Amino acid sequence: MNEAVKVQEYVYKETQGCSLHLKVYSPEGEQGALRPVVVFFFGGGWVRGTIDHFQPQSEFIAEQGMIAITPDYRVFSRHRTTPFECVEDARDAISWVSRHAEELGTDRERIAVGGGSAGGHLALCTVLLPPEVGQGPDVSGVPKAMVLFNPVCDTTDKGFRYESLGSRMLELSPLHHIREGLPPALLFHGTADRTVPFRCASDFRARMLACGNECELIAYEGRGHGFFNPGRSEGEADHEDTKRNAVKFLKRIFG
């Protein structure tokens, strides 16, 4: 455990007879001024995953003087849910973080969302989806930045389609809800990703820019899906590079 980082756990939601927790990573010591915060959603295809997926990134962010939060959410392997319930939980998590900002030592006006793969999809959905799509509170105006690791930007046949969505695939497709006035986004994506094709990230960036939004895409040549995780065959360089670039982006946006 990193002694420079304090970790606290809270229940943000009770549903289907289970408690959904989130972990808060903050700098150890005096609280001082309210800090920027980024909420990371784990990946796993809406089927599996763990709340500790983004622990290394969260600890690093806390070391840099910010706060990171990693919520759990319902997944198919444990709760027999669909991506719609995942989106609902993600919205509820962001709402909880916003409502408890002062208690957590965070600045309500400097909340970012992030995640990897399906978790990146959930982060995007909290910002891009109109309130009438799915359940949960409308939190689209809460996040002020997005940090995304090979995210699922497109849930149609041209992207990463989740079969059970069927005819509703467009509803949860962030690419198809891009509009002007969105917060800045930073994407990390491997060019050899066979799970979530690189072109999805490229298309997302192009559409964001066309709508006048800020969007940076950092391509990792020859890297596959999940390249940003520690312990991959490519070594730690990509993991460390994505962490540094994420912090650089957040500090530029939030000051």
Automatic annotation (TrEMBL):
InterPro entries: AB_hydrolase_fold, BD-FAE-like_dom, GDXG_lipolytic_enzyme. The keyword Hydrolase applies. Residues 22-126 form the BD-FAE-like domain. It holds the Pfam family BD-FAE. The keyword Hydrolase applies. Keywords: Hydrolase. Gene3D superfamilies: alpha/beta hydrolase. One of its GO terms (molecular function) is triacylglycerol lipase activity. PANTHER family: AB HYDROLASE SUPERFAMILY PROTEIN C4A8.06C (PTHR48081), ACETYL-HYDROLASE LIPR-RELATED (PTHR48081:SF30). Belongs to the 'GDXG' lipolytic enzyme family. This is Alpha/beta hydrolase. It comes from Paenibacillus hemerocallicola. The lineage of its organism: Bacteria, Bacillati, Bacillota, Bacilli, Bacillales.
